[in-house]
Design a protein that fits this description.
Length: about 425
Amino acid sequence: MIDKEKIREVNAQRLKAHETEFLALQETLVQKGLSVDDLLHHIQDFQVAVPSWALGAGGTRFGRFSFGGEPRTLSEKIDDVGLIHRLTQSAGSISLHIPWDIPEDANETRARAESHGLAFDAVNSNTFQDQANQELSYKFGSLCHVDSAIRAQAIQHNQEVIDIGRSLGSKSLTVWLSDGSSFPGQLNLRRALERTLDSLKQIYAYMPSDWKLFIEYKPYEPNFYSTVIADWGTSHLLATECGDRAYTLVDLGHHLPNTNIEQIVSTLIWRGKLGGFHFNDSKYGDDDLTVGAIKPYQLFLIFNELVEGMTNSANSNPPIAWMIDASHNIKDPLEDLMQSLEAIRLAYAQALIVNQADLQRAQQHNDPTLCQEILQDAFRTDVRPLVREARRRSGGALHPIEAFRHLKIRHKLIAQRGLHAIASGL
Ligand SMILES: [Mn+2]
């Protein structure tokens, strides 16, 4: 646990420079007619869940390079999220993966999270790999499987995940399926989808009445010919069939290259069916890179649709569950996560300063030049001092990564947990 006083000490060294930058930006924003206090409150309130599987070195299918000081237990993972939250004040919850992170004692786990000011966000089931002592194999699918006994096993697993989530105060289940086929003709595509819907309905029926089901989609991988829930349309169809509390979850890495993700976001908000978000970035496929590392403009355009849609859409979309879903092969996972959190808040802040009224007028007048000017004026505004000020007011570090390094946190974690500790996860 990092002492609040320590953070203030580290901040003090950069406070003067920050104040100069913030005052200059404040003047610019006020001139644009924006309320800086409102902006700060919105940014301070924006909290993102950190996944329990992203706190260690992830590796690729070719290899894994250990880090040192990785969290060995669920308690240590919660401590790591607490650490990130202490520095950034923007990671207010944790998203658990079952069975990688089954709590031994739910009350104790809950208390530990609360001591860090953390809540439990969506719980994630896993039927994409076989576990030790598992009776039946998911090699050829889970919820879509041709064998009803295997489908029943997968449904039961999801029900157990819901039970675990309930014991921790979670209110949602995220289902991502690797179900599909790697060769043409391997699977009857229509029947596989029918069986998947039937399985999902049984999971949905088991959920408590205040829970939500998030259905994630992905075009390919690990199957390379077909994926049962390949795109947002299929996810939306399944969610609609399941019921009012079933929603689509958008994972930024789960699209074919050049897909217009902001348009998908816009459509789902219009239907009130955007449930959750998995942030990451990618160059080629599901690369799970740091948010904003490759395509910060796309991220901004997505946030622009989110902000506009959440403010103006007639069909009310429920509050969206924001989560990071990334993997860290060569960076320190905690530094990587802090970079992602920063990128998310920056894109959100930029979207908040878009002059929606002017943009709408320009759209009404079919003026694409002006539309671009308005969007890029927001995108090219350096809002970093605003995001830093929001963090400072919440008690976080002006520069979280600098503070993390200055306070030698990784060094201390290695001293505490050892150089060869390995976390379970991706
Ligand atoms: Mn995901």
